Fold this sequence. Notes:
The chain is an alpha+beta fold. The chain has two domains: 9-51, no CATH class; 55-206, Nucleoside Triphosphate Pyrophosphohydrolase (Alpha-Beta Complex), CATH 3.90.79.10. Helix content is 22%, strand content 39%. The chain contains three helices and eleven strands. The protein has helices at 101-113, 169-177, 184-206; strands at 12-22, 26-34, 45-51, 55-62, 67-74, 86-89, 91-94, 116-126, 137-146, 152-153, 162-168. Strands 4, 5, 6, 7, 8, 9, 10 and 11 form an eight-stranded mixed sheet that branches. A three-stranded antiparallel sheet has the order 1-2-3, with no helix packed on it. Strand 10 and strand 11 (162-168) form a beta hairpin. The relative contact order is 0.17.
Amino acid sequence: MPFSPRFSAADAQVLERDAVYEGFFSFEKLRLKHRLFGGGWSQPLSREMFNRGDAVAVLPWDPIRDELILVEQFRPGALREQESPWMLELVAGMVADGETDSDVAKREALEEAGCALDQLQLIATFYPSAGACSEQIRAFVGRVVSAGVGEIHGLADEHEDLLVHAIPRAEAFTMLDANKINNGHTLIALQWLARHGETLREQWLSN
């Protein structure tokens, strides 16, 4: 039988919700309880939650050249003494009110990589760190029409500074196997592509 969670959203109750910080992101403190596998309900729990809204990430792929378009950018969360905080990533952005996932994917591909896409395929819907963050990410692979390879992109008012790379698919898989891809959404997209890429490439090329 396929896995299905034993409980549903109705089996958790938020008793209190207090805003701690409101800015570009928000931070709140929850008091909640939930059903237990052994029966009954938990005692009331106190949990802090980081809210940043939902996001869309997209892996642009040129199936003719068999190249992936990835962006290199600085990430302050990766500041460590012996590691570079510059990462090779998918393009990604937050979902604004009234936007579809397709809107976000195509907008961010253009803003961050000078990249035009004409088709999108959903890869996965996931929570990067659901123990403390409410963000859900919808990840796609997109068929590339054109891309700003070697160019610097990003919005100045968001302090973005992104260098656009074209990586052969086989080389990206080599980097993946060598533990050279160190951010979650890019890992997920490349793992999906390793499983389903040939089928999708045949489909896209036949069109």
